[in-house]
Predict the structure.
Amino acid sequence: MGRVVVAAVVALASLVTVPRSAQGHPLHTTLTELSVGTNGDVEIRLRAFVDDFSAAVSGSSETPRPPFRTPTDSATARYLASRLLLHDTSGRNASLTLTTVRREGDVVWVTLRASGVRSLVGTRLTNTVLFERFADQVNIVQASVAGRRRTLLFTPRDGRAPKMVAA
Amino acid sequence: MSELLAFASLGFRHITDPRGADHIVFLLALAAIYRFKDWRECVWVVTAFTVGHSVTLALAVTGALDLPADVIEFLIPVTIAVTAVENLLVRNRSVAVWGRRYRPAFAAVFGLVHGAGFANYLRSLFVDEIAMPLLGFNLGLELGQLLVIALAFVAFAALDRAIRRAARIARADASDYALRLRTVAVSIVVLSVAARWTVERLPW
């Protein structure tokens, strides 16, 4: 009888103390690809889940609920202006022009062009996309330089420190 | 950073993140029945779990398998609850079906479910050149799992010692008693948590 009471108390305590987990264990990540585009300028392609990205772009702090709307070009450009920065070899911020915002299933693809930046060698990148929403956000960046792929990870712990794309 | 290392880091962070406790709780349920001296057996079970989730992760990311996310999220706590119930019901595994070998088999089968859960978050992002990211991610998951298991063994050893101290006065077989009591205590906690998650994630 005593064991049953102890088991019931343990079970009840664990029920009360464990956090809700109704949404499972999301992997909060974005993938950004950097390469030199066909016109010779550096091109940046960002892929993010539309639910979190559209909520971030709209400035909402609430948990996104369907239906998820694709954010507008202007709102996306405003959101990314302070969060996705390419610094050229002299340390200046490159001018990034948003070319497309495209939705594919549950992912939104954003393409930007760095006008006048013709190579990734010596450039640095700042990527704090969605850091304001998730403490466990991990932004993966893959850069194609001279036929080789280099991968960078950006986490909130890194802050806004830019990282060298390719030496 | 190499691509392999980057994705291994992502997998490691994912499995060891205490905010997403479902995989950690499953690992605790798997490890709850082992003594420290049985660590090889536990590692074998955890590796079988990795093999299982690697298979569905690869199938789902390549598009060969498409499972509804809400059903998978519901099935994950079910696998945890079933493992806890098995811990509570089976006292002597050497006389169970397949002897002690069935546990790696069911860890692998339950790994299939957990792998589909990982895939829900990865498949949309990776549309080309997925071999290296997948390999790295799975490698990171395995290393993270082994870390969780190692920490669990330390905690279990402390718990066993406390139980033995309390029980030594009355019982000669204090070691077996401590293992059984620890298994029951951990499994009840795990079962309670998994039951709650199962109800919260009902897909209908």
